[in-house]
Amino acid sequence: MPAFQTSPGTRDILAPESARWRRLVSVFADVVEGAGFGQIIPPMFEDLGVFLRLGEATEVVTKEMYDFEDKGGRRIALRPEMTAGVVRAFVQHRPVTPWKAWYAGPNFRYEKAQQGRYRQFDQVGVEVLGVDDPHLDAEVIALAWAFYARLGLTRVTLLVNSLGEPDDRARYVDALRAYFTERAADLSPESRQTLERNPLRVLDSKREQDRVIVGGAPTIASFYSSAASEHFTRVLAALDRLSVPYEVRPSLVRGLDYYRKTTFEFVGGALDSSQNAVGGGGRYDGLAEDLGGPATPGVGFALGVDRTLLECDAEGVFAAEDGAVSVFVVDVSGGLEALSLVADLRAAGVSADRAYEQRSMKSQMKAADRSGARFALIVGEDELRAGTVVVRQLVGRIGDDRTQSVVPRSEVVPTIKRALQS
Ligand code: AMP
């Protein structure tokens, strides 16, 4: 075993998976840029205080933060999610509203690593600052929905809920705390602990022992103010109008404290229930103010790249594509022809690779076959003298009947370009 390996919860994403990764981001960019979003590339670490706004009682803050003191004595944290940093950027730069930003990149959480749960994981997402309109909530949700559809996913379910206004939520939390405290003796020890920190999170418990108690808990709907209730009704009506199917899930409270009103989650139908949340989001109307800015409504979502790709694998869609070059050059005349041929091909926009170290014909042809290239260009002493190149078709051939032709060196690039187009 080598002396060093990736640290737990981190992975190397190698080709061709890395190309699929990039394609996913590019499909996402296409969808959201078509809706007027511009990309933000925020730093990967920020002042710890930015992230404390996620809620002192959330696990992301209490247990999972990668925080440290830098050499200048600042308290710094690697970002555990993107929303807080994006809202910090909004407050810092004060762009014109509505401000529509999208992002892609890694986040860091010290979690128990397992399949679909990593310590460094990527998200793509959007945030809109400055608009309270419930139609925007629906539009944002519909963007994620359109993105999943573009990947070919058909088994993702949308769960939606509303957490009401902060006062509604506070009254609900009190009622929940009273309800669970009365039944604490029958709750699992883990849920009893969660109850002390944040009664809302007890609703997330998937433990068998908690099931009946959680099932009978009061639901948020009876605590909505009329404004919150109307906002939610209009979000749902807009989703209906957009034909985005959803399920209202009153127990959906999500992990982070800053959410209010609309919250939603996308669940992958082909994934194991312990990590089937492929994405989620909601409204966070108080966050900009919390971060020292003007009171500004906000709504957005983050989709887990790793889990979305796991869902793609499980559904058999958006497969990795092989990254084969178009042409492979085999040169047994010393290597200089290969050097200039690949340079000419690449300059003409044709992807090309070659063998090195003056290997034998047999070994170079093997490398050509392995490369997945459509054509091999072969140069030996005879071709070098005659100023020609042998063009041999590699893939797409029938049986062993390989078609090949001899082409003047000066004609190779145009000949290959024509052949690739056919
Ligand atoms: P959250 O910021 O916790 O709402 O997460 C949003 C999405 O990011 C989730 O739905 C997951 O798809 C993904 N995600 C969150 N934490 C992890 C993790 N530790 N590993 C992989 N994906 C994650």
What would you say about this model in short?
With 422 residues, the protein is an alpha+beta fold. Helix content is 38%, strand content 21%.
List keywords for this structure.
422 residues, single chain, alpha+beta, 16 helices, binds adenosine monophosphate, Rossmann fold, five-stranded mixed sheet
Description:
- The structure is a single chain.
- This protein starts with 16 loop residues before the first helix and ends with a helix.
- The protein has an eight-stranded mixed beta sheet with strand order 1-5-6-11-10-9-7-8, sandwiched between helices. A five-stranded mixed beta sheet has the order 13-12-14-15-16, sandwiched between helices.
- Among the domains are: about 15-155 and about 270-315, 2-Layer Sandwich (BirA Bifunctional Protein, domain 2), CATH 3.30.930; about 325-420, Rossmann fold, CATH 3.40.50.
- It is about 40% helix and about 20% strand.
- It is α+β, with helices and mostly antiparallel strands and about 425 residues long.
- It has helices spanning about 15-35, 50, 60, 85-95, 135-150, 165-180, 190-195, 200, 210-215, 225-240, 285-290, 305-315, 335-345, 360-370, 380-385, 410-420, and strands spanning about 40, 45, 65-70, 75-80, 100-110, 120-130, 155-160, 245-250, 260-270, 275-285, 300-305, 325-330, 350-355, 375-380, 390-395, 405-410.
- Helix 1 (about 15-35) runs antiparallel to helix 5 (about 135-150) and helix 5 (about 135-150) runs parallel beside helix 10.
- It has 16 helices and 16 strands.
- The mean pLDDT is about 95.
- The site of adenosine monophosphate (AMP) has 16 residues, from strand 6, strand 10, strand 11 and helix 12.
